[in-house]
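We read letters as residues; the fold follows as tokens. Both lines appear below.
***
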Amino acid sequence: MISSDTTPLLQHESPASSSKKHFGVTIDQLCALVDDNHNPKLLTELGGMMGICQALKVDPTVGLAPDESFDPHYGIHNNDQQYHFSERKEAFGYNEVPSVPEQTILSLIWTAYNDQTLIMLSIASLVSLVVGIWEDHSINHPEDEPKVGWVDGVAIIVAVAVVVITNAINDYEKNKQFRKLTAKKEDRPVKVLRGGISQQIQVCQVVVGDVLFLEPGDMVTVDCIYIEGHNLRCDESTATGESCHVKKNAIDDCIILSGSKILQGVAKVVVIAVGENSFYGRAMALLRDAQTEHTPLQHKLNVLADQIAKFGFAAAGLMFGVLLVKLLVLSILQDHWLSTRELLTELVGIVIQAITVIVVAVPEGLPMAVTLALAFATTEMLKDNNLVRHLSACETMGNATAVCSDKTGTLTENRMTVVSAALAELHFTNRVEFGAWRYNVHPVALELAVEGIALNSTAFEGKEDGDFVGSTTESAMLEFIKRLGYSYQEIRASSKIMGVYPFSSEAKSMTTVIQMRECNVVSSTRNEYRVYTKGAAETIVQLCSHYIDARGKIRPLSEETRVQYQLLVNQYAQRSLRTLALAYRDVNKKTYQGFHTDDPPLEDLVLLGIVGIQDPLRQGVIESVQTFQRAGVFIRMITGDNIETAKAIAKESGILTSGGIAMTGPEFRALSIDDQFRIIPRLQVLARSSPIDKTLVVTRLQQLDEVVAIVGDGCNDGPALKLANVGFAMGVTGTEVAKEASDIILMDDNFNSILQALKWGRAVNDGVRKFLTFQLTVNIAAVVLSFVSATASETSESILSAVQLLWVNMIMDTFAALALATEPLSDELVKRKPLCKRSGLINWRMTRMILGQATFQIAINLLLMYHGPAIFGLDNSLSEDRKVLRTMVFNVFVFMQVFNELNCRRIDDQLNILRGIAHDYLFLAIQAFVIVGQILIIQYGGLAFKTVPLSMDQWICTVAIGSLSIPAGILIRLLPPDIMPWLWNHSNHDEEFKHTVSYARLRWESAMDYAFELVREKKKSRAVDDAAAAYGFITSDSHYTL
């Protein structure tokens, strides 16, 4: 045990005394080690790596036990064991970084109320309440009239409270959805050693003392100390700011900081700090108050909302000025000056009307609509196995014009099986031949291949269900040797690995060096060390100088034999099989000592054989590709596989079409920039591609003004994922680095999920546009109607009262946002082309509908206001009839919004506005709620809303007039753009993106090439016939005889 007085301590909020009580080291000591990881003295004082392991009560060879009295000589083989580690968690904490505290309903209510216009309206309503009470109790108040002067003030206060509480509840539900999404986003599996067994657990279950396995592409979320490994290099830029790659080992630099990315090599490490005590956790704690992410669409809507608010303030200011001047002019003309109480009452009424106009005109619902749409979409996308990391990606995906997809696991099932193999010049092509092959193949070649597969791999058999954990390719190979009757665990346990060169996309191979022992396979070139390699077949075959023949003898690899193996690789590839070559090489100690630590020794290899791995096409991929193509999205396959395999899968899935180009990454990279721009519109398959090729393709497409989505899985795919407009990382086979660089994680690695992301992206954009169309219509109609009716009436009173307008405001803000921005998906979303980047928020169709509906609603309501008595048979001189008329106008106005909301379900020129409404349960529920609310307001809200109950005939009449919004919408949709040419300009029309080369053009070019080829063949045939006739040959059906 190391005494604390000899170790420099840093003050951290942690239960140091608790950790010292149960373990030989405290959190403070471990944090000090992390904070000063280049101080060898501090590490020595703690006893080095082994001293820390002893203090943490962990044996690095077997990992943690289920309890602290575990005997390391016996493993844990009971799958039902539970690992709680309560003392360890109490001493060193949980692996959870505290998130931003959840906002309570009360805090959200305060946030919703913290709006200038609502505060102004509240103040004005309080003044109205005071004045009303004053009037009710003044000596001038008639005794036969009820004292209801307080009603207006109280009604407005209650209405404001309802608006605020509704918005707060809405925000609470939205935040709850985002918190669930964040929790899902931070959950990831890690490989640990516990009880002597390798297994996968969730990262939140990791505790101090756990032994972890690190591989290329891993994101380290805990602080660790290096135990053993091979050629480990880390990117610590996110932790330290240093961009250089750091090499880790047990001597020079053994501390691995949380937040680091594993770029190269493998290692076994011990966890020394987790959660808020880790380097990353303490840094994240400082960012808890970071501002919320805003998407481009939210920024656009905020700008638009500000512009509309200016219109509202201008209208309210003008209304206030006009009514004030009108009051003054009437007083002068009538030579009747109001008393102080009457003047105050009039002024308060004018102020309330003006502020209410501002409340209605300011579109608070616009930012809320996109937030609701994104919250709804991201939650639903998670059900479709799309985990959205960046909200902006959701809306950007809606206008994607190109998708660059990987092959393995995305287009295919990632369920790999070895179905063909050739070892020592003997091969099988199906399961029937496998039984005879395994007994006839030369035993030395077979055992060398089995040993190479077992040792040159990082996959292992899972603890729970027996499935292999790790790379699916390696899992298929381990399953293959299991079918052959070998145990990879026994081979690994009896062998000594000296070095590992993990798979890299550049070398297209993985290499392992072992020290020879008596138990290892004996070959004719047996030496002190052996190199095992597996990788891309065409690459490894070129690196081999010898091969093993059918008799198990090592022979020089002649060009003729090399060509035969290459032909075999092509045969496998044409069957859509993934091909791997297995090779080895025995070396002496001197040669081994000359191996470079970074570059694998791939010279003078002995070829063992070729393996063909089947990975079937996913169900539904063909249909998804066709849907993408109909939606105007160009699909490209970018894969590291063999060109023939890639072409076979691309043709099967429909990605490679007639006229399309398939080539390798090096070939494309070698082209000039002009040729790249000429080729890329027709490029559909890029095989044997590296991460550099992916980045190059994305760059070239973006330079053609395309919106590019790309799928990546490797740690080197980070730059391409970051560069693309939308980066998809594979959730199952993808590395943590790829996931961190991505915008959306495919939880099932499924290509069909990308199509769902496209649909949701378009649904978000459409939902916001629908809401925008609806809200701007209500804004214009309500503001103009309030202004005209107030300035034109004798009493300077708007036809719509302040409380009525607040109810309308709730309908058009919160309820409309919920109804229109959260509609379910439909197939019509992918029956149109993507829009150009320069397309605006409001297109000419939306403008036409907004202006048309607003004009219609204003005209109808003004008509009713002035000619209603004649239409409805009312007497305008009677107070009760005037109240009935105002109530009917209010009812007509509200039901115009109810029916216009149906209109706004479509923002194109299609007339079927009820399409899919039977499945839009939220829309139907909200519409029902608004209708019921309106009925209650009319029939029972008299004092507060200044309404009177209507008769059945009056209800039928007002609802019928309100329903005229639907035929009006039909007529507006039928208006051609030529009627209003001033609406048609570059700023407000949707321009569909046009690919440089479309699928139709590719088919046309292919057909023309075929036709020209037929013409050329015909001309060539005629020329031969003419030549034959000239020299006296007799021709018959283009076959010539003397």
Q: What stands out?
A: The domain at 4-92+187-285 is CATH 2.70.150.10 (Calcium-transporting ATPase, cytoplasmic transduction domain A).
